[in-house]
Amino acid sequence: MKRFPFLAILGFSIFIVGPSAFAQLPPVDIKASGFIDMVSFLYRNIAPGTPGQGIYSFTTPPMRPDASPSALSEAWNRTSAYIESRARLKIQAMTGKALSGTVFFEMDAFRWGEAGTGPNEMGRWGADSAAVEVKNVYFDVALPYLGIPLPMMLRLGVQPLYVRPYIFTYTDGAGITAAIKIDPVTIMPMWFKPLEGKVYASDDVDVYGLNLSAQIDQLTFGGFGFYYNMNTYPLSDVTLTYGENPTFQSDMWWLGLYAEGKVGPIDLNFDVVYDYGEVRKEFGSPAPNVDYRGWATRLTVNYPWDNFNIGATVMVASGADQKKTSDSGLPGTRTPYGSPTTKVGSYVTPPGSEQWAGGESLIAYGSWVCRSDIGFFVWPFTAATNLTRGGWGGTWFAKLFAGYKVTPWYKTSLEMLYIGDTTQNGNTLGDARSNGKPRDDGTIGWEFDLIHTFNIYPNLKFEVGMGYLVAGDALDQSWPYQENASFKNPWILATHLTLEF
Question: Which three-class secondary structure state does DSSP give residue 378?
Fold first, then answer.
């Protein structure tokens, strides 16, 4: 498996020894772009993505090895508020269409007034935090024509692994991506290196993928397949010393189909993804392998008419059976019913994937108004170093939405969602119990959102979002002081000011 990157680089080296025309390149054009934003939150009983701010720690969602015993925080039924901000700066050096290099920086303040000095803590008093992060460093090159009449591009370096991020994956990491155009088909083979481990041992992690798409009239049809060969699992297990071996290993596949574009006057977006594979225990006490089989699908239709638009979204993602699945999904662990973990039927996303459930709602799934940094189904569920149910696993929803562009600079939108639970013999988020066993409820809640968008200047946008969730029984919690506690209905008022440049 280690021969692949060597051969890829060797092949690239041969390709670039092309016609002499490529030796005389035009002058370099430097471009800079990015944004600076500020997001404010006023809310009750919602779980922010950043640690230590949630109303409770969830224990029931499968594939959460960092979950602790259920403990309600002092934020239970209390109003919370904070401000955060982010800046991104992308610098590109471009030499015509044949060659470009990109360096992408990110700076975060998860809380204005935070006390730390490290990454994601730009908001400390006195400033001067070491908060500048390198997000991407890569270059794009067009391969010279060497008798193959196909336009081919290569991207090499730390780059986005970006494939249908609403349902599958978005991850930044080191790798090589190619793009081959055979009208109307685009072929994109990919290889990424999430973990190297010991360079003398097969304890590394490789990702191999292929994404195919074709533009037919106003529709794009596509499909993808990805194989994650994880000789060390979870990926965070990188502190192995000489003589040690990874406790777990995993092989996982994701297969997906998608379509997006226009069908007459209707905007359509459709995805379906199936995951399968296993996690096995390689060293230590023996334990049965854990099989993974899950799926998710999503369909959105939107009808724009004059200054109006109206549409609907339906999403269904399979849930785990808690008689067969523990919180972590690891071999050798036990389920809430006391039986060994043998199967994970929940839809899961790859390790490190920040699946963008954002945009679906303000409270349950996160919204662009909140930059997807708050909600019941956001990070850290979606960015762990192990397999997680991502933003959707164990749930389903049906959403109606409508928008009206009142003026060229102001638009208002309304959305309503019913959110259900697909986990079996237990709940996806709540951990209510009946007769000492997990209770199985169907309703997570009804959510109502109102969003206002103001385009103050062409590059300055201000958004205001207001959301209210009528909580269902599937959110009830059990904790040392009260069994099956129901919290007050969550609500939020959020604002998002963004300057783009």
Answer: coil
d(CA 300, CA 313): 4
**What is the torsion angle, in degrees rounded to the nearest 10, for the CA atoms of residue 211, residue 214, residue 219 and residue 223?**
-30
Contact 391, 374 (CB under 8 A): no
The phi-psi region of residue 331 (left if phi > 0; otherwise alpha if psi is between -120 and 50; otherwise beta) is beta
Q: Is 264 exposed, middle or buried (0-12, 13-18, 19+ CB in 10 A)?
A: exposed
Alpha-carbon gap, residue 152 to 141, rounded angstroms: 9
Quote the number of domains for the chain: 1
Neighbour count for residue 251 (Cβ, 10 Å)? 16
CA gap 388, 346 in Å, rounded: 9
Q: Taken in order 418, 424, 429, 432, is the CA torsion positive or negative?
A: positive
Confidence at 20, pLDDT banded by 50, 70, 90: very low
CATH classification at residue 395 = 2.40.160.100
> What is the C-alpha separation between 500 and 498, in angstroms, rounded?
6
Q: Catalogue the E-assigned strands of 217-265.
A: 219-233, 248-263
Query: What value does the mean pLDDT of the chain take?
Result: 86
* Cα–Cα distance list, 479 to 60, 80, 191, 311, 434 (Å): 13, 21, 45, 40, 13
268 exposure class (CB count in 10 Å sphere: 0-12, 13-18, 19+): middle
CA distances from 471 to 241, 401, 477, 482, 493 (A): 48, 20, 12, 18, 17
- 357 within 8 A of 391, measured Cβ to Cβ: yes
Q: Does residue 368 contact residue 357 with C-beta atoms inside 8 Å?
A: no
Q: What is the number of alpha carbons within 13 Å of residue 296 lying toward its C-beta?
A: 28
Buried b / exposed e over 66-91, threshold 16 CB at 10 Å, is ebeebebeebbeeebebebbbbbbbe
Nearest to 348 by CA among 376, 315, 382: 382
Most confident of 164-173, 419-428, 461-470: 461-470
* pLDDT beyond 80 at 435: yes
| Single-letter amino acid code for the residue at 139 | F
Is the pLDDT reported for residue 395 higher than 90?
A: yes
**In whole angstroms, what is the distance from residue 334 CA to residue 329 CA?**
9
Q: Look up residue 130 and give its two tokens.
A: 């070491």
Longest dimension (CA), the chain: 78
Which domain does 355 fall in, by range? Answer: 3-500
Question: For residues 495 and 241, what is the distance between their CA atoms, to the nearest angstrom?
Answer: 47
